[in-house]
Amino acid sequence: MSDQAIILLAEDREDDVLLIRRAFQKADILNPIYVVGDGQEAIAYLAGEGKYANRAEYPLPDLLLLDLKMPRMDGFQVLTWIRQQPSFSTLRVVVLTSSEDFGDVNLAYKQGANSFLVKPLDFESFIETARIVREYWLVLDKSPEASWAKPEPEPQHSA
Questions:
Q1: What is the pTM of this model?
Q2: Average pLDDT over every residue of 110-130
């Protein structure tokens, strides 16, 4: 993967969004980051509904950073929805949350998370976490072909 990989951040706390953006900048992550504020908005973005219908303006992500504790629809519900969509079965989802509860860890993996990271408490540790995300998810990891980026051709019906 490269600097071209699109990152979708599902995070409801504006302070955390700013912290993540700053940490990613300090970790030299130059990838475009699109932000949604809750689970319903994350699904609307992925489904291309409403204001997210224009894929030139809101491209589908290569990586989703997903908070668990969000209003209206939490990260677990988003994970369930994603894994029920055949076109998103290979979307890489990294849970990035404040929760250290093992019940949350186990449930997130059970529902299809690819990784579970706890948000660090101090900024320097957050920069290091961002570097790890960059090195593993954006450099080392071989991503699956993005089936959602190329729509399937419509079957031809003979009359």
A1: 0.87
A2: 93
